[in-house]
Amino acid sequence: MTHPLQTKEWGEFRKEWGNEVHFEKNSLIIFSKIPYTNFKIGTCLKCGPIAESDPAMFRNIGKKYNAIFIKFEPNISNNESVKQLLSKSGLVRGKTLFTPTTFWIDLTKSEEELLKSFSSKTRYNIRLAQKHEVKVRIDNSDKAFEKYLELTFETAKRQGFYAHTEKYHRLMWKHLKDKIAHLLIATYKGEIISTWILFTHNDFLYYPYGASTDKYKEVMANNLMMWEAIKYGKKQGLSTFDLWGREEGKGFTKFKEGYNPKVVEFVGSWDLVINKPLYYLYRIAEKARWFFLRLKARV
């Protein structure tokens, strides 16, 4: 499996969440029911190069699950020949669920090399957090996870973004804890002020979820969190740290850029359409849904 979202553990989590899951050619397809209908959509996120190999087979799988379409987002670097092959196989460009670019940090470099490559401001903030005696460690305890939930919803409300529900996070943690998922926490004056969930899989470290309090933001705990996450990945013998997304103009992107990561672009999102009329109706409804979700997050 090429990515945590393609693992058996992720499939079991999504199954308990209420999805139907289907493994095909070592790739996981998740089927989600469209509310108030009998139709579903399929997603194969961070999969290998499978969609172009046998589109008729995947159409049959989609029909079996009564899916309008199956969305493929291959975990493959941007490649014109792959995109041409996907297009020739009948797939169309779709709305991306993951950002089409991400950041990678090379964990095979020495700590000295990595620190030297960071921006001067990032190095200063790391030292500042250390001076304030911010402590960072892995803590997979129930107490730490409850604080992670509290900070997640505090952060979502403060920054106005959509967050998964408490049930979603609890089920994810139940299935991935100590296998793929690990909780990194920062404490200041005995209080947990920042929490990150890290994924480890194959040779990669990932940073999918993070939350922090606005209190004590002057101690720069998150800068030290990133540095300690990098050191954790190196201690685990991992080769690459995937920072899980990049969006131009966003604050978290600017924060990540301070660590001098490499920009990696993927081939993007491709939809295998099974029911064309309903697919285009769905795309219209999808735009309206995200508009209201973003509006709700800001209220």
From TrEMBL:
Swiss-Prot/TrEMBL keywords: Acyltransferase, Cell shape, Cell wall biogenesis/degradation, Peptidoglycan synthesis, Transferase
Lineage: superkingdom: Bacteria
One Pfam family here: Acetyltransf_6
Gene Ontology MF terms: aminoacyltransferase activity
Ranges of residues in domain BioF2-like acetyltransferase: 119-247
GO BP of this protein: cell wall organization; peptidoglycan biosynthetic process; regulation of cell shape
Family label: Belongs to the FemABX family.
Protein name per the record: FemAB family protein
Provenance organism: Candidatus Woesebacteria bacterium GW2011_GWA2_33_28
